[in-house]
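FAQ
Q: What does a multi-component entry look like?
A: The components come first, one per line:
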Amino acid sequence: MNTIIIDGLSFALPLFIMAIGGIYCERSGITNLAIEGLQGFGAFCGALFAVCIAQYFAGNSPIPFYLAMLFAFLGGMLFSLLHAMLCIKFKANQVISGVVINILAMALTEFMTKQINASIFGAASNKFVLGVSARLTVPGLSRIPVLGAVFTNLYPFEIVIAVIAVIAWYVLYKTRFGLHLRACGDNPHAVDAAGIEVSRVRLVAVMASGALSGLGGICFAYSISANFSSNIYSGYGYLAIAALIFGNWKIMPTLGACLLFGFARSGGYELVKVLEMPSSYQDLVMVLPYVLTLLMLIFFSKKNHSPKALGEIYDKGAR
Amino acid sequence: MKKNNKNILHKLILQTIGHEKRQQYMIPIFTIVLSLIFGLIVIALLGSNPFKAYYNLLQGSGLAPKASYAGHKGIITDFTSFLNALTPMLFAALAVLIALKAGLFNIGVSGQMLAAGFTATILIGYSDLPAVVAKPLTVLIGFIVGALAGALVGWLKHRFNINEVVSTIMFNYIFQYVISFLINTFYVDPVSRQSKNVGAAGRLTLVDVVIGDYKMDIPLGILLAAVGIAVTAFLLNKTILGFEIKAVGSSIRAAEYAGIRVGRTRVLAMMLSGGFAGLAGVTYYMGYFASIQPKVLVSTGYDAIAVALLGNSSPIGIIFSSFLITVISKGSTYMNSASGVQAEIASAITGIILLFSACGAYVRYKVDRWKDEQKQTGRLASDGRATK
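Then the predicted structure of the entire assembly, as tokens:
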């Protein structure tokens, strides 16, 4: 039971932070299918930086990890500018732009990983080895029955994510900027009439999405895969999109969806272990989150309401 | 003076891609040239000779002679092998194209390929049917399985309003893991860690055919692909269904108003799209290759998006664009061994092509604006002369 909660949380929270980024982007009216690529590129930047500075720190020092998080944050933000440029400035189809960003990120990071490994580190390898970040247990709280597992064996990034999530919630729902952002997604003309530049608000939203996606990506790289390789592109970004659709583009319900994904996944693994099935059955468990996504979309897509101006190119002249 | 320079630049661009009829192919060519220049710079920065690297791409695809060949090999065997790789790409591009025409985005081509290829492998590839029966059955099963997978996506979109991008990707992963499980449990070859090889009877490529002094692989599917392109062009331009698909793709409201049943058209378009993806699957897994690697989704489905966008989503256009993309991806292995440039640069260049293609609409818009501006300044100038 405890492992289900611990592993489930460490999967759900990075997903959650990417979904929050997606919510920011989509609530401002820009469809964001690029999360997958943004998280991969962010993770690449973070991992690259961590590998470069690793020699200056002791093996168990947590500092490279925090710096990697910072650089993943910045890297994702940088790459998201491409999406912003295509969608806002070039008025390209937002769905196509998202897919282009994903494919480009995959191709570029794979190429650069191999090239950098070959020319700087002199090794023929297609991944940056990172290791798993250290875990910590909150004394006291962890001794509460059942719920205590939430505070046991935490990855440090889970705390960072929790803090950022609270800030993101506050900004989106309680500040003037958040109000503008949400209005941009529903009625951009009203925002424009109020004297606020729609494209600027949207730019910030896309950048926030990129930054948070990058953060989510590096968390996966430091926990599940323990390295950066093309394995990072296993659909986490799309799971985040499904979670935010399921969560009706609101932050709290989205958290619920992410937790459901996380617990379904860790529960499935636990089941394979308990029933002592051969390891190839793990492939079937891996399917669980994806099947769940489809089922949830079937039940909730009709009822949910996307932001009204989602995916529409803002045209000042069209009133 | 600065403004003057800008005007000259505008004029230059207008002269090359300004003409509306020529825009169709001038913009893709612009895109390709820009992307190749990008590749050129990157390869040069990495310290290799970019022109040699590009020539290696042609050599690897059997379009230029290599320095030396192994026994029974020659430029012609490289070329048939290139056609072998081109076949699934053509089908995959058709799949993306038909969906795109209906305003849908099928990025599940890779998954549909896998599902169709796997089903055909276990039903026909492992059976003892004679070649005359097996080959048509392979094609048929490939098409049906793909079409069903595609239709399901279309139906989910129509009935439950599920974004096809998300659902196709979910299906990609579901197919990938379930089929990997099935292969590892029932059909694995213990040596290669892939599925057991299919029999020659059902395979859509004739392997090691001796012609003259050469042993070559002859892809039968390329003929089928040619037929597929012709059928698609006919369907889109000359039939009612084709018109309905294009109408739905241009504007759902207008289509609805004209009495077109949008849901039905979308499901049909996705079905056709999936069917072509299925054909890509059988020509890939039971033609170009003879086995399936578990847990791997081929990149063909994603490259096909670049091909379709670059080919201006026209059936004729994709012949050229898939040719180019296949040269880049197929030749990259040889380029790696001959010039030492990482083979992954191929997909990076493809990605850049895709990026520039996505800007195509903006370029068109900008060029039209400049044209209007020039007309206006031209008119002003002539007006000025008239008053004098």
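Q: Is there any commentary attached?
A: Sometimes. For this entry: Strands of chain A lie at 128-129, 227-228.
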